[in-house]
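Supplementary Note 2. Why include the ligand at all?

Several targets in our set were suspected to adopt different conformations when bound, so apo predictions alone were not considered sufficient. For every target with a known small-molecule partner we therefore ran a joint prediction. The input for glutamic acid is given below.
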Amino acid sequence: MNCKEVLERIYKEIASKENKGAIATYIPELAKVNPDNFGVCFLSVNNEEHGVGDWQTKFSIQSISKVLALSFAYKTFGDEIWERVGVEPSGTPFNSLVQLESDNGIPRNPFMNSGAMVISDMLVSHLENPKEDFLNYVREICGSDQIQYSEAVAKSEASVGYRNKALCNFIKSFGNIENDPNEVLDFYFHKCAIEMSCQELSKTFLFLANHDFRTTKGKKVLSTSKSKRINAIMQTCGFYDESGEFSFKVGLPGKSGVGGGIVAVYPGKYCITVWSPKLNEKGNSYRGMQFLETFTTETELSIF
Ligand code: GLU
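The joint prediction is reproduced in C-alpha cell form.
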C-alpha cells in the first residue's frame, strides 16, 4: 500500500464534499479560526511521515492536552490518582455536571472537564511552576521548544468559563480539589490553550504507539503498563459521548478537542492527527471523524 497516495486521495475526496458542522464559538477566540483549515499528519513507528493540507499550521489543541496532563500525573502519582477520578465512559457531554452530585465529586474519567480539573489540581499541588513545568514536559515529549500557550485563548476561555468555574467549585465542595479553584482553573485554561500543528501532535503522541512506548528521541515517558492504560482510556473515553461511535467507526484509541483536532494511535504501528475546526453536534471534528473512518476502513489499519 502507498500510504501517501491513500492519504492524499482521501483528503481530496473529503475536501470536495460539504464541510458540515460548526466552529466552537463558545470560546470567542476560537471563533476567529478559518473553518476551511484542514490538515493531516501520519507518522509511523518507523518514522515514515506524510503530511497533507494545513498539517504544519498551529491550532488550539484544547482537550487533547488532557491526555498529556494525565500522563504527567500518572507518572508522578501512580495508581493513587484513581482514588480521585474514575476510568469509566460517562455517556454525557464533556462539560456535564450531572453525575458529580451522585458520584460525590469523583469524575467518571480524566478526559471530561471535571476529571481534567482534578488532574490539574494534582499537578498544581505538585509542580513548582505548573504552567511552565507542564509546557516543558510537552516540549520534551514532542522534541521541540516551539510549543506555546495562546494567552489570548486562555484569557478568552476564562472570560466565559462559567461552566468550568462551576465544575471546579462544585468538585471543591466535595473535597476533591485541594487548591484554590482559581489557580486550578488558570492552569486548566492554559493547558487547553496550547497551540500545536498536526505534525507536532503526531510527534508527541507517537510515544503511545512506539515499540516500548518511547518518544521519537527514545525516551521512556511512562511505563509500558501505564502507557497501555492511557490508550485504553482514550479508546473508551476519548470522544465525549461519541466514544462508542468513534470506536465503532474508526477502531483506534484517540482524543479530540473542540479546536477541531483529533489524534489517534495504533499501538505498534502509527499515530495520525487530523485537524478541521468545524465540529459535529457532539463536539468532534466533522471532517476529522470522516477522514479517520475512511482511512482505517480502506487501509484496514484499525486495532480491531
Ligand atoms: N477548554 C475547553 C472547555 O473546557 C475544552 C473542551 C474540549 O476540547 O473538549 O470547554
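The beta strands are 39-44, 49-53, 59-60, 148-149, 194-196, 254-256, 261-266, 270-275. The CA atoms of residues 103 and 174 lie 10 Å apart. Comparable summaries for the other entries are listed in the accompanying table.
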